[in-house]
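Feature request disguised as a bug report, sorry. It would help if multi-protein outputs had a clear separator. Right now it looks like this:
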Amino acid sequence: MENIALIESFSEFKDDKLIDRVTLMVILEDVFRNALKKKYGSDDNFDIIINPDKGDMEIWRNRVVVADGEVEDPNSEISLSDARKIEPDFEVGEDVSEEVKLIDLGRRAILALRQNLISKIHEHDNTNLYKQFKDLIGDIYTAEVHHVRPKMVVLMDDDGNEIVLPKDKQIPNDFFKKGENVRGIIENVELKGNKPQIIMSRTSPLFLEKLFEQEIPEVFDGLINVKKVVRIPGEKAKVAVDSYDDRIDPVGACVGMKGARIHGIVRELGNENIDVINYTTNTQLYITRALSPAKVSSVKIDEENKKAEVFLKIEEVSKAIGRNGQNIKLASQLTGYELDVIREGIVEEEDDVELREFTDEIDEWIIEEFEKIGLDTARSIIDQDVQDLVRRTDLEEETILDVIRILKEELEG
């Protein structure tokens, strides 16, 4: 009964660790055989009988009866006198099977056995967990917020598995509360000691690609192919899509009527601005589309150096560059070309002055803010609406007015 009671207490791990009973029994036999080896030197002459259905087990020690005083190996041989204490009619040469009780192993051995079992089950769980989540790398996964820490959010899935969402894998304006569900992709599984650490990401371009698969039926069905995704997480993204069926408008299908289809994805990503463009093998056309919403006049390709000069009218330059240079940066990443914006059709006014000429009066970082939106001369700034400049730059209205005053004094003085 001691064996059965111990098995039943051990089988509690089955529920805690989500390990099936048969696997538990295999681990148990291995653990008991190790205990027998330590006590008797070998487990060769022991039978361990495990019944996975009932959850009980028996350990039998098999020895050969020898004459009294002729026992050479106590583990495999038993004297006739000792054998007859078990059954009185044993004779020399016969096999004796004697049940081993747990108490025979000793208290310390039983405690060590239990620790060994715990270790083996943890090892089994960790191996299975590692394999399970290795197969899920690149897939969208949902888990619940368990702890919010300064450098990470610790999530828990329905099976009680811990998943880590590091700070640098979070969208900048993400805000999490305990108990809410969070979606991301399984980006990696790392072994920390013997324990797997599951890493989730919400900033990966693959997360946006998988959201397209999940939210847009034509992408899921393979009718629309997502060719490439580039992102500045939480700010802006560009997605190039293509269709194998000429009857399908890939951009229209992804965006949906009045943006209905893409709205859920935008909301999931913290209102990230997503440009969806038609992919093409025509490099000039691809670059033109990538710089949307700007209207490109022409493109000059340097194929050898993977560079392109993009010619735009002055009013389109700021759109092409985008806030903080985001639009041109993503267009470059999407197309694989270094893009250089060239303003066209401008007759240089004699009294216009390059903005860099004012470095003695205007701070460098302020000049850079104007250059980010394509304004690099005095008149290009003076001709702009002040409120529009406030909206498109990180500058205060007072700063912009001060810059305009300095520029006007130079041009009109």
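(second protein starts here, but nothing in the output says so)
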Amino acid sequence: MIFLGLIMAGIGFVLLLTGKIPWIGRLPGDFYFKGKNVTFYFPLATSLLISLILTLILWLINQK
């Protein structure tokens, strides 16, 4: 439980820093379209990068 809490606190800290990290949300592969009345944003590359990082972290945690 303590370890899970530390992980959640770490994720929260990273979320606080995302506004200060200039490349989060602006990677090649993040789709952004701004039309006359609509804006569409799909952070595909950012999502894949975060998924890869979280997968590696969880894989390292589960190694015995």
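Even a blank line would do. Unrelated, but nice: Helices lie at 2-17, 44-62.
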